[in-house]
Structures are given as structure tokens and as C-alpha cells.
Amino acid sequence: MKKHNFSAGPCILPQEVFQKSAEAILDFNGIGLSLLEISHRSKDFVPVMDEARAIVKRLMKLGDEYEVLFLGGGASLQFAMVPLNLMKSENGKAAYLDTGTWAAGAIKEAKKLGTVDIVSSSKEDQYSYIPKDYKVGSDYDYFHCTSNNTIYGTQMHEFPEVDTVMVCDMSSDIFSNARDYSKFDLMYAGAQKNMGPAGVTVVVVKKEILGKTGRDIFSMLDYQKHIEKESMYNTPPVFPVYATLLTLQHLENNGGIEAAEQRNIAKAKLIYDEIDRNPLFVGFAKKEDRSFMNVSFKILDENKKEAFDNAWKAAGISGLNGHRSLGGYRASLYNALNIESVQVLVDVMKSIS
Ligand SMILES: *Cc1c(COP(=O)(O)O)cnc(C)c1O
Predict the structure, then answer these.
(1) Residue 41, annotated ligand binder?
(2) Ligand 1: does its nearest atom lie under 6 Å from the Cβ of 76?
(3) CA–CA separation, 69 and 229 (whole Å)
(4) What value, to the nearest 5°, has the Cα angle with vertex 302 and ends 300 and 305?
(5) Which of 29, 63, 194, 269 is most exposed, with the fewest beta carbons within 10 Å of its own?
(6) By the 8 A CB rule, do 321 and 7 touch?
(7) Is the CB of 222 inside a 6 Å radius of any atom of ligand 1?
(8) Is residue 293 within 8 Å of residue 155, measured between CB atoms?
(9) Any catalytic annotation for residue 312?
(10) Parent domain of 232
(11) What is the mean pLDDT of the chain?
């Protein structure tokens, strides 16, 4: 039986996507060949890449000033590609907001290329909130933030107005809410959190911000090269691109980002209400910064932990353990998770108190 999958990533995808992906591996569109054994430059695959790039822009309501890339290397490679492509080679300087382990990972890489100012950080408070007390001036080459902190369960519900290029790691909440995506000059997300299988990363970039560093960039790390070659500079990860396209088509056919946002709000409310009502549980993140995607919480009475763990496992729930660095529990409510699954978890929580 299908489990209620609360995993933080790789994550649950629509069942229809699993089915269609499996079919495509056996026989792609009835051509008598597997998706895995055809040329990425064939007339059968090129439309997949073209439509995958187009649907991202449609869903985000972005115009022709943006380009969409499907790249390998994970979101982690973007920690390096962003400064390589945006930080001036001489006296380069960038502003970063430190809201968690992933943000810190991005900072670590950027420091290898130039000056990095951490404009604000919630590290001292175990990353339990999103700092809001900072300004970013035009003396920076760009500003980098992380919209959703997957491990801690905090999310930026508002974004600052900055006087420079705005970059955001949206790995764990892309396509989950109807934010104004045109506020950003560069967005990236590893597919495996809310969009597709591991192995591909989506980068959405405004063309005008590129080509200004004075640096000769390795071709594979150069956004402009990938744009020129329409994400086919080298052999793209064809299967993750196809499965991501199926997920995004599923999203578009079910009311787009706006409808997904409403479903995600309802799911998050259901579980946060129980965390706040039930004296046995406590949420980790500061309330106003709570994530609608990753709900981190703890059990207060350690004596009831075993009973709770047994009960959720018996209810067919999977992937509820917190990140190893934080402990406790983490319920990830990505787009494909149904509210019925959240109800099952909430019923278990009620039964323990
Ligand atoms: C998971 C995650 C990453 C790292 O993604 P990879 O694709 O594994 O490199 C980066 N940023 C955030 C916010 C994440 O959740």
C-alpha cells in the first residue's frame, strides 16, 4: 500500500507522474524505444526540454526577459555558479542572508571568490526565525537569500527591497506559493524537493544581469553558455527533466500555483493547529516565520516518544524523522502530499496526547 510520505527530499510526487515516468522508461510515447535510450537531440526529446522550459515561465508568470535552464549538479552547484557568474572578478562583493545550513553552504562557496557580507543571521538562535533587520545597498554585486529553510522549517513570507541583483535559493518551496517571481533576478531549485526526481536543478535567470563579472568562466559553469545551447550544452539529465515536466503539467492542470498554494495553506494550518493545541508537542520555528512546506516539531514528554513513533509507523506514515542536525520530527508537506495524509498524522498526534 502507498505510504503517507512526509519525506523532506527526495520527496513525494503525484502518483500519475510515477506512472507516466515508468511508462516512458519502457516505451516513450509509443515510439518503440525507452526515454533512456534516445538521443537528447532527437525530435522526440527536444520538445520535452522546450516545453519544460516554457512551462516554468508560464507557471511563474514571467516574460521573455527570463531564461530557464535545466542543469545538473544539484542546488549545491549553484552555490558556486552564482558567484562565478555574478560576482565581479575585481573587488567582488556580495550580501548574503544566513538563515540555515543551506544558506551557510552558499556563503562558504561565495567566500572563495570575493568579499561576502552576512547582512543578518539567526544562527545564534539555532536558525529558528528569519531575520528582518537589514538593508542591502547598491554597492553589492548581488544579494542571496534562501526562501525556505528545509531543515529548520522557517520560510520567508516577505522579501526585502534591495538595491542590487536579487538571488534566491528556492529549492524547497518553488511552485508552492504564488509569490511575485518577477521580484527575483535569479532563482534556483534542486528538483527533488517539490518538483521532480533528484538529478536536475532549475535555474531561472534574467538575461540582463549576466556577462558583467570580467571573469572567463568555465563553459559548463557559465549560464550564458547554457542559455545559448538551450540547456543542451552537454547531455542533459533526460529522465529528471521529463519527470519534472510531468509534475509541472500536473500542477498546471490542477489550478496552477495559486490552487497549490491554497491546498498547502490548508495542510499547514491543519498540522500547526494541532501542534499548538496539543500540550505534548511544540513547534520549532517562530510562529510568524513558520514554513508551509517543512513543519519541524518536538515531543515534550520523552516517555511518550516510543508510543508516538509506533503509532505513526502503524498508520502508514513515512519520512517523519527530523534532520539529523536538529532531531525531533519534520513533516514535509510538498505539493503532491494530500491533505488526507496530513489528517492521518494529526489523528495520530491526537491519539497520543
Ligand atoms: C536540499 C537543499 C539544497 C541542496 O540541494 P542539492 O540538490 O542536494 O544540492 C540547497 N538548498 C536548499 C534550500 C535545500 O533544501
Answers:
(1) yes
(2) yes
(3) 10
(4) 100
(5) 63
(6) no
(7) no
(8) yes
(9) no
(10) 15-253
(11) 97
Which pLDDT band, with edges at 50, 70 and 90, does 1 fall under? Answer: confident
Do both 134 and 236 map to the same domain?
A: yes
Verify whether ligand 1 is closer than 6 Å to residue 330 (CB atom). Answer: no
Q: Does the pLDDT of residue 185 top 90, yes or no?
A: yes
Q: How far is the CA of 323 from the centre of ligand 1 (A)?
A: 13
**pLDDT score at 302:** 94
Q: How far is the CA of 102 from the centre of ligand 1 (A)?
A: 7
Where is the domain boundary, 195, 226, 253? Answer: 253
Taking residues 115-142, what's their average pLDDT?
A: 97
Q: Are residues 22 and 57 in the same domain?
A: yes
Q: Is the pTM of this model over 0.90?
A: yes
Across the range 27-41, mean pLDDT stands at 97
CATH of the domain at 230: 3.40.640.10
Dist CA 36 CA 28 (whole Å): 9
Same domain? 183 vs 149: yes
Tens digit of pLDDT for each residue in 295-349? 999 999 999 999 999 999 999 999 999 999 999 999 999 999 999 999 999 999 9
Residue 74 alpha carbon to ligand 1 centre in Å: 7
Domain boundary (253, 279, 296) is at 253
121 lines ligand 1 (CB under 6 A): no
Check whether 353 has a pLDDT greater than 90. no
